[in-house]
UniProtKB/TrEMBL annotation:
<keyword id="KW-0808">Transferase</keyword>
<keyword id="KW-0032">Aminotransferase</keyword>
<dbReference type="Pfam" id="PF00155">
    <property type="entry name" value="Aminotran_1_2"/>
</dbReference>
<dbReference type="GO" id="GO:0008483">
    <property type="term" value="F:transaminase activity"/>
</dbReference>
<dbReference type="InterPro" id="IPR019880">
    <property type="entry name" value="OxyQ"/>
</dbReference>
<dbReference type="InterPro" id="IPR004839">
    <property type="entry name" value="Aminotransferase_I/II_large"/>
</dbReference>
<dbReference type="InterPro" id="IPR015422">
    <property type="entry name" value="PyrdxlP-dep_Trfase_small"/>
</dbReference>
<comment type="similarity">
    <text>Belongs to the class-I pyridoxal-phosphate-dependent aminotransferase family.</text>
</comment>
<dbReference type="InterPro" id="IPR015421">
    <property type="entry name" value="PyrdxlP-dep_Trfase_major"/>
</dbReference>
<dbReference type="InterPro" id="IPR015424">
    <property type="entry name" value="PyrdxlP-dep_Trfase"/>
</dbReference>
<feature type="domain" description="Aminotransferase class I/classII large">
    <location>
        <begin position="43"/>
        <end position="377"/>
    </location>
</feature>
<protein>
    <recommendedName>
        <fullName>Aminotransferase</fullName>
        <ecNumber>2.6.1.-</ecNumber>
    </recommendedName>
</protein>
<dbReference type="InterPro" id="IPR004838">
    <property type="entry name" value="NHTrfase_class1_PyrdxlP-BS"/>
</dbReference>
<dbReference type="GO" id="GO:0030170">
    <property type="term" value="F:pyridoxal phosphate binding"/>
</dbReference>
<dbReference type="InterPro" id="IPR050881">
    <property type="entry name" value="LL-DAP_aminotransferase"/>
</dbReference>
């Protein structure tokens, strides 16, 4: 029997929610990809944003040198890795209180985003808040935990509600918008007053393009006022170091929260492979390859922005990250279809929330040759 508190087949509503996750959005792009592939000069794929440039040689060498790994790796990560990450946080993000003991490597940050509400104990009746235009996995993570997903850009609109988790994402995916320190400081104060954990997705932190409004970590003293209590920040090597295939990232911040995550991840076997940990250590210890990659992306960004604006697009936000947030003031799927007819594939803004229904997300992670092809077609 199915009562008021049961879903189909007798499952509880919370368990049934796990079987009713939204369709994987990128599957809907398949027919447009086929159209773009039919172009005489082939497809220019500016949709998913997959890195295409080589993984730096020192990182690959570190992976190979550590490939003889017969024993189990450390869930906590090696001391060398945690110190490398803490050093990067101090050096590149201005996190003066970066503590290697509060660094925990993860198997790519998408995994962490999806499971973090569960790992932090969110469940039925809890609210997980994230931006109105956002990476879809924030919503999925709340659903996997059986919690209530809440998409909003105005925390005050929640009234007296005390959410379990508040996600912030600056620089934003998909819009490239950067939240200034003052805004983030208000979010931190609001959440601390309600006992909520603030989780900051900072995967594009090193890709700011507007010197007047540079990205800032939630763990920066100008934001957190010297305390990491109730705060977590996550970052990834996928875009920074062209390591998307390695599945390598980390979470850091409140030491007590990190230790709680560590204990759960030990039990669940969520462990970054030892060779990948070695590669991560080298990647976070070197800034030169990131500066080189930034220069590549800056060239591609400038070329694509000029071409799309010349083609009649308006670029909004986009002051950071690896995307242009663009519109022709028409339904996003019409824009996707138009560009696919030119052999150019982009991401529909609708994937990120109803507010993106008239925008597309344009990645500039294609090679120089394919970027040049796109600009010519436009």
């Amino acid at each position: 029997m199915v009562g008021d508190d049961r879903g189909p087949a007798g499952f509880s509503k919370e368990v049934w929610a796990l079987f009713t996750l939204p369709d994987f959005p990128w599957d809907r792009l398949a027919p447009y990809k086929e159209r773009a592939l039919a172009h005489a000069d082939g497809i220019v794929d500016l949709s998913v944003g997959t890195p295409v440039d080589p993984t730096p040689e020192p990182i690959r060498q570190a992976l190979a040198a550590a490939s003889d790994a017969p024993g189990y790796p450390q869930t906590y990560g090696t001391p060398e890795l945690r110190e490398a990450v803490a050093g990067w946080l101090r050096r590149r993000a201005g996190v003066t209180g970066a503590d290697p003991d509060a660094v925990l490597p993860v198997i790519g940050t998408k995994e962490l985003v999806a499971w973090l509400p569960t790992l932090l104990g969110a469940g039925p009746g809890d609210k997980v808040v994230f931006p109105a235009l956002a990476y879809p996995t924030y919503d999925v993570g709340a659903r996997l935990a059986g919690a209530d997903p809440v998409a909003t850009d105005g925390l005050l609109s929640l009234g007296p509600v005390a959410p379990k988790i508040v996600w912030v994402n600056s620089p934003s995916n998909p819009t490239g918008k950067v939240l200034p320190a003052e805004h983030l400081r208000k979010v931190v104060a609001w959440a601390r007053g309600r006992g909520a954990v603030v989780v900051s997705d900072e995967c594009y932190l090193e890709f700011g393009w507007d010197e007047r409004n540079p990205p800032i970590s939630i763990l920066h003293p100008d934001v957190c006022e010297g305390s990491h209590e109730g705060l977590l920040a996550l970052n990834s090597l996928s875009k920074r170091s062209n390591m998307a295939g390695y599945r390598a990232g980390f979470v850091t911040g409140d030491l007590a929260l990190v230790r709680r995550l560590l204990e759960v991840r030990k039990h669940a076997g969520m462990i970054v492979p030892a060779p990948v940990q070695a590669a991560m250590t080298v990647a976070y210890g070197d800034d030169a390859h990131v500066d080189e990659q930034r220069a590549r992306y800056a060239r591609r960004r400038a070329a694509l922005r000029e071409a799309f604006e010349r083609h009649g697009f308006r670029i909004e936000h986009s002051e950071a990250s690896l995307y242009l947030w663009a519109t022709r003031d028409e339904p996003c799927w019409d824009t996707v279809a138009h560009l696919a007819s030119l052999g150019v594939l982009v991401g529909p803004g609708e994937f990120y929330g109803p507010g993106g229904a008239r925008h597309v997300r344009i990645a500039f992670t294609a090679t120089d040759a394919r970027v040049a092809a796109a600009t010519t077609r436009l």
